Fold this protein.
Amino acid sequence: MGAVNTVIRQQLYSEVPLVNQVAEYIISAGGKRIRPVLVLLIANAYSYQGNAHHSLAAVIEFIHTATLLHDDVVDESSLRRGKQTANALFGNAASVLVGDFLYSRAFQMMVTVGNARVMQIVADATNVIAEGEVLQLLNMHNPDVNEADYLRVIRSKTAKLFEAAAQLGALIAGADEAGIDAAGEYGRSLGTAFQLIDDVLDYSGNAAEIGKNVGDDLREGKPTLPLIYLMENGTPEQRELVRSCIENGDEQHFDQILSAITSSGALDYTRQEAQKASRRASDAIASLPDSKYKDSLLELSAFAVDRNH
């Protein structure tokens, strides 16, 4: 990760000062860096000996950071990773445009690897992520979104970049198609588990620990899995309350919603679905040879559901 951070710092440079300022702010804000870690762990699990995985890990982090910049503008978010969002600090226009810079810089870096399959994986991933963003936009304030609809958004918007990161690690290390597919399944399932636990934490976390405002999803009118479960399994009064809150982005009734979500078992159900995804991730890499890298991947799939931030 030290080598990846060196690449990130080198590639962030622009002759336009505002680009440097915004990009540096969002990159230095921290985060778990799970996606670039995936590239490194999978590549090393396949005994990779080169250093192209450092550049590809940075590519994945740039794409992720670009989506964060754009997401926060779309969601009108004010807090991420415990700090002001870039759009709150620098304005929406700067955030969108610097997000575009990071996207294009990622593709510049990707081309230098000189592998058409790498470009295909990343290009396909960014396109699917964009589709996922639009799907989520269409679902906003829509109380009739069902579980299948929501899981489709997760697979596109969140899990796809995890999948691409894992695939790149396997590909650059020379894994066969079965190995690349297995890595992709690991990443896709891990990303699904991460997002489902994020949904849980939005109703049960601590703002200081999760780095964003608790209840943001409700304020934004996002029908996440806990709300969807409550809509399908709650009392008529609870369903009507959820419907109203989703339609209006109303967080004034957050305490009532939280009480209903907790008593209905919605958070437990969402955790169980995350645990299923975590087990799928672990099963996908069962055939990898034993190593400290495989151990770390298995620990990561467990961390995805055990975390509180």
Remarks:
- The two ends are 21 Å apart (CA to CA).
- The beta strands are 79-80, 83-84.
- The longest strand covers residues 79-80.
- The first helix runs from residue 2 to 12.
